Structures are given as structure tokens and as C-alpha cells.
Please model this.
Amino acid sequence: MREIDVSSLSAWFGSNQVLHDINLGIERSAATAIIGPSGCGKSTLIRCLNRMHEEVRGARVEGKVLFDGDDIYDPRVDPVVIRRRIGMVVQKPNPFPTMSIMENTVAGVKLLGRLPKAELHERGEKALRSAGLWDEVKDRLGDPGGRLSGGQQQRLCIARALAVEPDVLLMDEPASALDPSSTLRIEELVTELKDRYTVVIVTHNMQQAARVADWTLFMLYGEVVEFGPTSRIFTTPEDQRTEDYVTGRFG
Amino acid sequence: MSATISPIAVPPTISSHRRRKDRIFSIALWASVVIALIPLLLIVYRVVRLGVAAVSVSLFAHTALPASMPGGGMKQAFFGTAMIVGIAIVISVPLGVLTGIYLSEYGSGRIASVVRFTAEILLSIPSIVAGAFIWALVVVALGSFSGLAAGVALTVIMWPIMARATEEVLRLVPTELREGGLALGYPRWRVVLRIVLPTAGAGVFTAIMLAVARGLGETAPVLLTALGNDFVNTNPLKPTDAVPLRVYNYAQSAYPAWRALAWGGALMLLVGVLVLSVTARMLSIRQQRRMR
Model:
């Protein structure tokens, strides 16, 4: 079943069009990878899915993104509400420097209303466990989030996104700033999470897409070249350009 | 991989010509620093030497006395400055910090450019103009010189400093942090309040302190608005004394006792500004460490 349906989506930075008429269906409880060379618009596409694209000055979007059947670009829709249901993790780990590990984890939960301290803690613990970070930080939840290693910071950001219990988790190159072993942890995590969440992951690492994703989208110059089950994209692509890219002939 | 790369030939020594040039530049740089520091050190030396001699209990405990009588002080001026700067802080901190937030977080397009330009112009207008402006606006309207008018005049000086400095420190907060908040479903105002301001916290405080340090020593705006007073005045709507004003008046007098008091007041101003600036500097160093 589809969770997100993108239809005729175009996006601009000022007068520069970076996405051209994108059509795409994202399956529920599965991982969809977006691959393509630098500058192909994959980050812009993922940022259009939770209305973060428009936060950049001069940025503009046209087209529809149906989330559970409702257009998130409907003028009556508050982007804030959308972002609570569609979480996001970005490339560079960005824990809030003034908050502790626990405060970081529940930073989003606090928005949902006043919760008793015990429940807040419980939610935080659950999210940290889901992100595979609990055992490493349970004895120092009061430490600043910025004191963790890069890989741990990234998992903290994942925990922070999961704590609000979103339906979808968008990940924009979540492992590209990390070392190989931290990357592996993140990939394992994605594999675990995709059973419970709809995961969309942007990556420039094709092996990573092959390892974690059920579906793969290949983009070039702001257009969809090919979209299909990961195994097919990597073994028997229909488009010559996809084949050239996945076999490493360019990009 | 590295086996086939041939090394670039590096000459064994740097030519004496280059070394000489380097020498000359280094000396020129150091000389400029020393020349720039000389007047500053001379001023500090003279103020401290003459000021320390004038600092006594009566400087703080007594109000102004005729020059022929011993034991006069500037108590009323210290009170007045505290009141005037206090009024200026109350008005300019919210105004300045909010303007800074607007410029950094919301301001785009024409209005922001106009606000930024206005702040910049105000930064560079002579402070006597600010004094004259507020004299016309507040003193004339209220019919009296007053501490309130002086506080407003100092606001004209302090507001743009705070606004621009706050904008600068808020801009140092990485965009990823704002996006992190937005992506969690924070409304914009909450991103500012919960993430941007706490992260830049000490920096904003630094901006405020630097502006206060500047306001503390301003003479011209106070001259035209507070007028001065020989006695302690606690009514903000009445003429009030201020330390820079008293120093200005006493320094020009013919009486050695008054001139000595002026040095004492000058020393106190110097100490006040120094304390504020050093604290601000220390806070901003701490802040930079945290941002990294």
C-alpha cells in the first residue's frame, strides 16, 4: 500500500528549476532509496516530502504530494503538523547543543503537550532503544548531546525523530558524514525501522541503497529516470542511464 | 597508488630575498601595533595615576560641594548614571534584541534592508545629534530636562549596537540546528526561543554588555538631556546628574579640587567600561568554544 504519492512535483530555487515533474509512489512500511549523482535533486525531493524545501529563501514548489490521501501542499495544511508526522534526519548530525541527551530525545515530544516527567522519560527511553543508543547512553542521559561521537549523535537525531512517533522517516544521506562502522550501525537500524516506519533514504552510496532499500529511485538532472524494486534496478535496469550509473560508468 | 607520483622539487632553503621581505613585513606589523597601543596606554596610565589619588570615601559618599569646601563628592552622579543607564537598558534591550532576532530569523526583502540600514546609520551618527534629537523630542515635550530623556537618548546609541550585534551572533547559529527544530515540527517562533536563542545565549548577552559599556561613557546625549544636578535625584522626570557629565564639567573648572574629582570619576567610568568589556569578551570566548 502506498503512503506517499508524489504527482507532477516541480521545485525551484529562485528561477533555477531543480525538480522537473516528479511522479512517485512510496510504499508503506518499506525503505525507498533515492540515488543519483550530486546535484541531481535527490535532497530537494526528500525535502519536498515534509515541506522543508520551502524554508530556504526563494525556494518554491508546484505539484502535489499526497500523504495518506491528503495533499500536504494544500493551503489549509500547516507544515508544522506535517513535519510532526513525517520525521527527518539530515546528513550532518545536528543535536541541539544546549540540551542534554535526554532533552534532545524528547525535544519534539514536548511540543505535543505537557506530559508528566515519568512519561516523557519513558518515551525518551523507548526512542533511544529504537535508535539503538540506549545501552550506550543510559548512564549519562544528562550529558550534553554534543559530547557524543558523530555516529552516536546521528543515532540521537534518529531517536529524536522517532520519539514523536511519526509515520514516515526521511533520511537525507544519514551516514555520509560517518565512519564505516557507524555507517553499518545506521544501515542495520534502517533495516530494523523499515518494518515499523515508512523510510525514505537519500544516499550517494549505491551499495548502501542495495543493502537497505526495498525500492530504489534513480534520478538525473532533477528527473526520475527509473523507479522499481531495488533488486531489479541493480540487476536488470530498463534504462541505459541507470545501468551506466549502477555499474559505475559515471557519477 | 602513490608509487608513480614523482615528488615536487623543493628548494633546500628559502631565498634570502624572501626572508628579508618577511622580516620587513613582520617588523612593520609589530611597529603598527605598538604605535596604536601607545596613546591607549598613556591615557590609561594618566587616568589611573590621577584618578587613584582622587578616589576616596567622600567621592562616593558626598554630593557636590562648592570648590572651596573640602570633601565634596559625586554621589549624585553615580546615582544618576545608574538611573539613566537603567532606563536605557529597560528600553533598548527588548527593542535591540527583538530587532536582532527579526533581522536574523525573519528579515528578508525590503523591510529588513531598511531596518538594517537605519541601524547602521544610527551607529555612525555623532552622539551629540542623538542628544539634540531627544532634546527636541522629549525634553521640549515634557518641559524639563530629565533622566528619562537621557535614558531615551542613550537608547538611540545603544539600540543599533544591540540590534546589529544580536543579528551577527544569531547568524552564527548553524542552519542545521534550525532545520532540526523545524523538521521536528517546531513552529518558527519556538525554534527561535528554544534552539537559536539558547545556543547563541552568551553571545546575545555579550552584545547587550558592549552596548551598555558604550552607553555608560556617552557624554553628549546626556549633556543635552539630563542637564546635571548637584544633589541626588530619584525622580526620572527631573534634571539628573551623570558621571560623564560631571567629569566634563569639573574637568574644565579652575579649581584643583574639582579637577581631581573629575579624574576620580573618569577612573570609575574606565573601570566600569573595562569590567563590562572584559566580561563580554570572556563570555564570547566561552560561547565560541561551545559552538564548535
